[in-house]
């Protein structure tokens, strides 16, 4: 298993992985997904801050992915936001989600970023447990954050 930065070669599989996930479908459809590879690149180029993704690969197969962006446009200069982390169902519970999150923490540390934040549904026990184990701390409940009426929890990890 290797974790590498997302490149053109893996975008199709990366998008398929994200689109297979109920928890991110709603968000992606609000962003206009599913998108073709070309549309995806145009979309991310139009973001007002940087966006980056890593994929976990077993051979040529993408079995996990994590996406994160800068937070400058939220007036958080030294922070970045994990917008999604997904592991294919048949590869869960083997530490892959944790390894993807740690890859982002390492990247952030190297860039001098001081805080990594993320937002998770309060119903999403696997994700809450994973982020808790890595060391993320809840700092705010966002009421009725999702269309279905669920609350979300904002979590943060301080790098310094
Ligand atoms: C959340 C997700 C990425 C976790 O990936 P994963 O590779 O299975 O996670 P890990 O194996 O690294 O698990 C780390 C810890 O999280 C907890 N955990 C993972 N799955 C769990 C589950 N189903 N129930 C309870 N705790 C769970 C465990 O404490 C685990 O530690 P352990 O292995 O020592 O028991 C994965 O479940 C997933 O893709 N879910 C769908 C997408 C999603 O909801 N993403 C998050 C919001 S963007």
From TrEMBL:
SUPFAM superfamilies: Acyl-CoA N-acyltransferases (Nat) (SSF55729)
MF terms (GO), sorted A to Z: N-acetyltransferase activity
Statement: the UniProt record of this protein carries the keyword Membrane: no
InterPro entries: Acyl_CoA_acyltransferase, GNAT_dom, NAT_camello-type
Domain N-acetyltransferase: 1-160
Pfam families: Acetyltransf_1
PANTHER family per record: 8B (PUTATIVE,_PSEUDO-RELATED, GNAT FAMILY N-ACETYLTRANSFERASE
Protein name: N-acetyltransferase domain-containing protein
